[in-house]
Design goal:
Radius of gyration: 25 Å
Number of helices: 13
Largest sheet: 5 strands, mixed
Shape: globular
Length: 456
């Protein structure tokens, strides 16, 4: 089984493809094992993941080369045995996560801990050498004759900057955007969208305001701004069909839970995220139907790193059986759809369906997502959002996002009865049922905001 030493041996350690399981079968008894190591009461996958990331973070902060720390998970031990591939899948998930982490996988590795030939916990082992780390936490590398030559790197940096400036000269867009109907290599592409869905790809960058109070020190202020954004963008403009207002969302309608976390490292955010999932798991859906987890100091200016991180969160939904509990939607100040259609590109107004003041993770309950999507075609939601956002315009949307102020469109509010997807959603919220005439779309369990539909 996945709890047996032989079966997990090939994928047990995150540090390399050749893994090992720490077996303490020579201990006198299980009692001595319990006394020697910490014990965690986790009994579900989210609780287990929160516990393991806590162990990893403790090892990153407190352990040095040669030291290790083990945590037992007695309530999960039987699950390790009865689900033959569970430990392998769990380790594979951490193997994916280490690729985006700073210390995990470099200074700290994770090893399944076995007792009596069965996995009962996990050990974090440190390889951190304090002599090779500066006071600022940077690594000290040995001289490399292939790289440490007499190259004038300062001049090279200046040359690269000059080339980039020359390429961007005269371009007033937020980022380079290809002309409509022109492919990546200049080839013509026929548009498949109606004219009224044309993307407003250019903005006047010189007239954009500076970002006001980029990261407030006060968590309450961050939540207040996030609620204002949710109210106008998600509720008033109907970007999310099932958001009633900044305080209520879901099916059935319940309170939106807002939480701010100041973590800055991948490892800390993983731990904070899984603890939030545990909170959602342990609360009744009527009390906590959805959570908006806000990370104002995490990957704020690095959308690529945030996307890579986001992918590691969606990966375990199916592989570890968490998809029946939750679905995820991600928001970021620089989010860009990459579906290859006209909606793509940094200058597209449609991107503002997922652009938020700060990086955010929206945790949704899977049963509510599936219920909500019974009669609402994903493509229709996309089309209506695109039309609404284009009516506001990229320039206005970016200006409001930077100012953290949406009062410029205070009076703009879509009529949910006039838009098909919003009408169906409102009827469903009010009656709890979907009219037979609206049940003509194949069921789709993927959150509309999370799925790419190139035909939309």
């Amino acid at each position: 089984t996945g709890g047996e030493v032989d079966d997990v041996h090939s994928a047990a350690v995150v540090e390399s493809s050749t893994a090992s399981v720490e077996d303490n079968s020579d201990l006198d008894s299980a009692d001595s094992e319990e006394e020697e190591h910490q014990s965690n009461p986790a009994s579900t996958t989210p609780q287990l993941l929160a516990g393991i990331w806590s162990l990893i973070n403790e090892a990153n902060a407190e352990l040095t080369r040669g030291e290790s720390r083990t945590v037992l998970f007695p309530n999960m031990a039987q699950h390790f045995v009865t689900n033959p591939t569970y430990v392998d899948r769990l380790i594979n998930h951490f193997d994916v996560c280490k690729d985006v982490c700073d210390d995990f996988g470099v200074n700290t590795v994770l090893i399944p801990h076995a007792q009596g030939g069965k996995v009962v916990g996990f050990t974090a082992k440190s390889y951190r050498n304090l002599d090779k780390i500066t006071e600022d936490g940077d690594y000290i590398f040995e001289d490399d004759p292939f790289w440490d030559d007499d190259e004038d790197w300062d001049s090279l940096d200046a040359e690269i900057a000059a080339i980039a400036a020359a390429e961007d000269d005269g371009d007033q867009s937020i980022a380079p955007v290809r002309a409509q109907g022109v492919g990546e290599f200049g080839e013509p592409i026929a548009s498949t969208k109606p004219a009224d869905f044309a993307v407003e790809a250019k903005v006047d960058a010189t007239s954009l305001p500076d970002i006001e109070n980029r990261i407030p020190d006060d968590d309450d202020e961050i939540i207040a701004v996030s609620k204002a954004w949710t109210q106008k963008m998600m509720a008033d403009l109907g970007i999310c069909p099932f958001t009633a207002d900044a305080e209520k969302s879901g099916m059935p309608v319940g309170p939106v839970y807002y939480a701010v976390d100041r973590s800055t490292t991948m490892e800390d955010v993983y731990e904070a995220y899984w603890k939030m999932v545990v909170k959602v798991e342990e609360n009744d859906e009527r009390d906590l139907p959805t959570a908006l987890h806000i990370f104002p100091e995490f990957c704020m200016d690095n959308i690529e790193a945030f996307e890579n991180f986001s992918n590691t969160l969606t990966q375990p939904l199916e592989s570890l059986g968490v998809e029946d509990l939750l679905q995820l939607v991600f928001f970021h100040p620089h989010w860009t759809f990459r579906d290859g259609g006209e909606r793509s590109g940094m200058g597209s107004a449609a991107n503002y369906a997922r652009r938020s003041p700060w990086p955010m993770i929206n945790i949704l309950r899977t049963n509510q997502v599936r219920a909500a999507q019974k009669g609402i075609p994903t493509g229709l939601v996309y089309q209506q959002n695109e039309k609404t956002l284009n009516s506001v315009g990229t320039q206005q949307l970016e200006t409001m996002l930077r100012k953290r102020d949406w009062s410029a469109i205070e009076d703009l509010k879509v009529n949910r009865r006039d838009m098909e997807a919003l009408r169906i959603a409102q009827d469903y919220k009010e009656t709890g049922t979907i009219d037979e005439k609206d049940m003509d779309i194949v069921h789709d369990a993927t959150p509309a905001a999370n799925k790419v539909d190139s035909e939309a």
